[in-house]
Amino acid sequence: MTDSDDILENLPSTTMAREKVIYEIDDDMHERELFDRRMKASQLFPFGINVLDVMTSGGMEPGELVLISGKSANGKTELMTNIFQSCCENKKRALYVGLEAKEFDIYRKLKFKAICVSRNQDPDRGEFAPDPTQWGRGLRIDLDKYEDQATERMRVFEEYGHFRPSDKGELFSVDQILAELEKVKDQFDIFLIDHFHMLSFGEKEYQEQSMAIKRIRQFGLRIKKPIVMACHLRKSESKSATLIPDRSEIMGSSDLAKVATMIIFVEKNNELKAKIPTNHVIGFEKTATLFRLDKFRDGGSREMFVPLVLFDSTEGRYDNSFYLGQLNSSDTEWTMTPDKYLPIWSKPHNKEYLRDFNSEEDIPF
């Protein structure tokens, strides 16, 4: 029997005295419930991409296992680096394990973004936008003048982040990865593994993948820290006519989707720019990107919607506002959701809805 039960059994006989005791119990419950909510908020890990933070009610929880997937060269690693950046900027210690990355790949992606931010603040920056491939090959020496500023911006990653590239052709088993993570589990708050399918599996690949994902999940739960993993699609599905994949198309064991607490798909599609209202000015440097929250711990209507977000290639970031939409039954056509059908959680961030208001003060919530 709890203390509360004991108090309830021995309530005073008078109505006034009983109400006082019950009020004290409720007041204590109120304080504990409020504290619990405040603690949950402080433990969230924002994605750093507003549309995902909105759709997931603030980001990832401790012990969460998040899968990031999509077609080849469609933004998985870009999304992973944005999450890594957000964690560091929010003073969360993050480890990025790049199983497909060379020594400077991830660091260079982040540094290029920092250079672009500095360049965009320069009124004498010149006409031509920087190209990451040219810059990465050392050809854009005109950007060298932004190196010092970029290096200063990168200090947050040196303080809170760490990269573990795999540039020597080495293959890791699940045992090796988990052994490495075990050694540093107290040094980091979140772990990002890019890509899961680069791990070494034996002849019984699907069975080993099933066991691997369960072990990784158990590790995250035990240390109470989120793990984010990028995953490939099946090769036959990577050429699918659908606008964005779903969980059935992830390569390997079906247990990957079953064990994960959250699954996010990302897909670039500039043809969808034609769906954006003509009164919205969109530069050539913006890429239309679809996000699909295919699995979410709290379920609900959020999985029904597929938002379109513009990605700014000159700064390597996603716009804060977005266009909420839905797919047809075959996932081959995307339609913007009319204002009257927009869920309340999306309205403060939905670009088409916000166009009707002159300022933030005019928005009715």
Description:
The longest helix is centred in the N-terminal third of the chain and has 29 residues, at 15-43. 35% of the residues lie in helices and 15% in strands. It has a single domain, classed as Rossmann fold (3-Layer(aba) Sandwich). Helix 5 (105-120) packs across helix 7. Residues 356-365 have low confidence and may be disordered. By secondary structure, the protein is α/β, with parallel strands linked by helices. The protein has helices at 3-9, 15-43, 50-55, 76-89, 105-120, 132-136, 147-153, 155-160, 174-184, 205-223, 255-259, 351-354; strands at 65-69, 94-98, 161-165, 190-194, 227-231, 262-268, 286-295, 308-312, 317-318, 325-327, 334-336.
Give a short summary of the structure.
The chain is 35% helix and 15% strand. It is of the alpha/beta class and 365 residues long.
